[in-house]
Amino acid sequence: MQxxxxxxxxxxxxxxxxxxxRDGLDLKSRIAVKTRRDLKMVAAALEDLGRLRLARRSARYxxxxxxxxxxxxxxxxxxxxxxxxxxxxxxxVPGAGVARLLAVLDRPMSGADLARxxxxxxxxxxxxxxxxxxxxxxxLGDEERPLHVVARADDPTVLLLRxxxxxxxVVPDDFPTTLSRIRMAAGYPVKRAxxxxxxxxxxxxxxxxxxxxxxxxxxxxxxxxxxxxxxxTADRAEPPPLKVKSDRVLAVLSHIAGAGExxxxxxxxxxxxxxxxxxxxxxxLKRKSLVRKTGSELKAPYVLTDEGxxxxxxxxxxxxxxx
Length: 323
What we know:
By secondary structure, this protein is of the alpha+beta class.
């Protein structure tokens, strides 16, 4: 049956575009990314495939194979060295526009940023980016959205997808928080936010830490805080809820932290709190795992636990934020 298939002879560019169409790609831009060819080159190849009845335009910007295009056997020949007009076919030559774009691409940028820096339209940037990509001079952060973010090929910066940018941008600058708070700030369902966080963790941009009561929290790494795609204007996620919130608890934890260790009677005298109330408060903080006794004696002094020190630090940070 295979021997009965019609055989066609195509140039390398035409064959590459036909194979991309067979793989289900239909947009010229996606075909250009797949084949690493210039948009004009892809457009010319698709038109050639149309004239050969191997492909057809299914919408204004979409192409698909015909039955012949799906089934035929392809014999590939090199792209011709010259075509009408004297321009090289299948050969890209960097021009002044390409050089200008590379000159301003000192960090990963979106197509909109590049258009502003160059003072040209996004359509022009679109053309230049595809030429640079075909030449192997730039990387694309998202092949489905080529102008989402573009970087020089030798720039080692991790390029993030849209969901990852959004989630990275809402993680707070200076404290860890929960998945629930992050996903609410991002406006994403849990699984979507969780998937983005998993990718950010794999790239070393966020880390997973244990918070109060062993609850898992996410916080930025230095690399995440300084990442070029992180939006400095985004609303940040709220901090996780604390076990304790009162000013009296803050005063007690602060005094114990300053003293190192303290007995209940000394704490009551220092803070001018009735002894009975101080004793009840210390028992409450002990149940919350924020303080512990240093011994089994009745009057053994209390010290902060690791969780108590973390809670004190967070209470102080929130108090400063309200002042």
